[in-house]
Amino acid sequence: MIDLANENKDKLGFSNVDFRLGEIEDLPVDTDSTDVVISNCVLNLVPNKEKAFLEINRILKTGGHFCVSDIVLVGNLPEGLKKSAEMYAGCVARALQREDYIGIINNTGFQNVEIKQTKTVTIPEDILIKYLSDKQLSQYNKSGIGIFSITVVGDK
Q1: Assigned domain for 10 exists
Q2: Could you tell me the maximum CA-CA distance found in the chain, to the nearest angstrom?
Q3: Domain limits at 133?
Q4: What is the CA radius of gyration of the chain?
């Protein structure tokens, strides 16, 4: 994918973007070298989210910013959903509580952290019944648990 992205960049004549293969917890990017970091539904899959946000902070220039979209929770998922590979791949199983996610961002040195957009994520019942008993499904539907896609921005 890196080769394809660079090929497309060259075809389009862009010189202000760079694609590199790396781990988000140890980015192959110089300190204070980046204007903008974007991420879409990746960080909640990372085991050490604090380290990932510290890396984003490290590479951003002073005055740089990030924009991250990710899945967060309000309330606790039933164990059947937490253990599901399908829910993991769908960025739900490893999602943090919304306040914990925002807390990590605030605690890693960012300023002006703001949730710009929130969308409710609804898991279809035909998927839920794969992982929950009838009783668990009923409890889940009455629980008020919220799964949300949020877009968060912040400055260095």
Answers
A1: no
A2: 57
A3: 31-155
A4: 18
